[in-house]
Amino acid sequence: VPAAPDQVGQQAQISQQADIVKLNKDRQQELVQQLDKWKSKQSELQSRIQATKAAIEQSTAATGENSDETKALKEELAQLTKEEKDAAAQVSKTEERLSKQTVATNKSEQALAELQGELQKTNKELKSAAWDEWTKKADKATEVMDNVGQKLMVVPGAVVAMGTAAVKTTADFDAGMSNVQAVSGATGEDF
């Protein structure tokens, strides 16, 4: 059974929406991976900051606060702190984008589910309509068969009359031949 135009249109919409859902899920997965990357970087930087602070304390105790080693460690700490702050900002931005993307993915999945529900409803309506159409055709066929049956009821009487006439004609022919045989004196072999 070919698909109805409504079904074809709905199937095309479902296909498009399924593509949108896939794109949204893919983007959401990318954001999850980015978030993991930024959190990992932030955690690494925090560990390095703690280690650098400990190194500064040791250097200050060993060489003094104004030593080149301590100054270099303080510059490294400033750079690590800046990088950690940037990583934290990226974590925050990525979490926000991920949150929005999750909403978009959920909405696209909901839209897909609604389209699929509409298609199921259309399919049920078409099946119902097809059943109704089939029922109408079956009723029409029954009506035609009833009419044919009523007309055929006349035919058996005609067939009986034809059969009777054939039997009578054969009997009349046989009687006529018997008369010819009697008058002519012919035998069965002569005929």
Overview of the structural elements:
This protein has 191 residues and is mainly alpha-helical. Helices cover 92% and strands 0% of the residues. It has three helices and no strands. The protein has helices at 5-63, 68-152, 154-184. The longest helix has 85 residues, at 68-152.
State the main characteristics.
mainly alpha; 191 residues; 0% strand; 92% helix; 3 helices
How would you state the average pLDDT, rounded?
83
Estimated helix fraction: over 70%
Q: Helix segment count? A: 3
Instruction: Quote the beta fraction.
Output: under 5%
Structural class determined from secondary elements: mainly alpha
H/E series: HHH
Oligomer: single chain
* Count of extended strands: 0
Report Rg: 50 Å
Major β-sheet profile: none
Basic shape:
rod-shaped
Instruction: Report, as a whole number of angstroms, the end-to-end distance.
Output: 69 Å
Low-pLDDT ranges: none
Briefly, what is this?
The protein is an all-alpha fold and 191 residues long. The chain has helices spanning 5-63, 68-152, 154-184.
Task: Explain the layout of strands and helices.
Blueprint: H1 5-63, H2 68-152, H3 154-184
Helix pairs in contact: 1-2
